[in-house]
Amino acid sequence: MNEYVLALNEITIKPETLYFYVPPIVWKGDSVGHIGKRDLFFWVIEGECFLRIDNQNYIIHPGQLAYLPKGKMRAYTHASERFTMYEMAFSAESGDRSLMEILGLTDMDYVVDITDKEEMSRLFEASYRDEFYRTPLNDLMWCANIANIIRIYAHERSKQSASESKLFRPVLEYMSENLGRSVNIDELAALMFMQPTYFIKKFTKAYGISPLAYFNRMKIYKAMGLLAGTNLSIEEISKEIGVADSSYFTRMFKKHCKVTPTRYRLEFK
Question: pTM of the prediction?
């Protein structure tokens, strides 16, 4: 049997910035979107974060690690009353190539569940302390932490490549393509050739919330991007996400984001 061995003769890891967002610090993110200039890791500790990379949409929960490759379109924001997260920018190369690309981590499936959450939090916390004291020794430890985070991310991603949540990718893509209208459980279940009741059970187990609740949250996050990045009226945005009654949309938005759409637009801008 032939085995393929990846030989890395040289690895260069460069820590760049590390931010720790914890209340009362408010992280608004960028719900409009931009091309990423740096590799990023998001480690969510509390609350819920929306992430879009190219045409893939994720709702990140505590205990999940997200990788945002440079060079791809990205948008992210949150709507939780309390939100705590580490954001780390770094570069990792082998020769003249991206280490993440060599490891096959720059395409698809950018969010993974972390098994040992205490270890991951320790790696980010230690790196955060090292970032305050930029000495050669601290930078060395920070580089080691980044290498370990990459290792864990790659391991968890390979382990979860066939997990239940990945099986529902067609459903998430269908949701993303149909945010401008209403969908029902029957049509979502049909995508997976499942009975509706069984589909709801399996989807909820994989994502922690029901399919329609997930779909409605995706609508809210799309509305946040439209509020921040366009001059569309509330009525027009309501129609864009498939809600005919703008008053109902306002109530729906306020319930999830704790502020009205108008207030969110003013605060974001």
Answer: 0.85
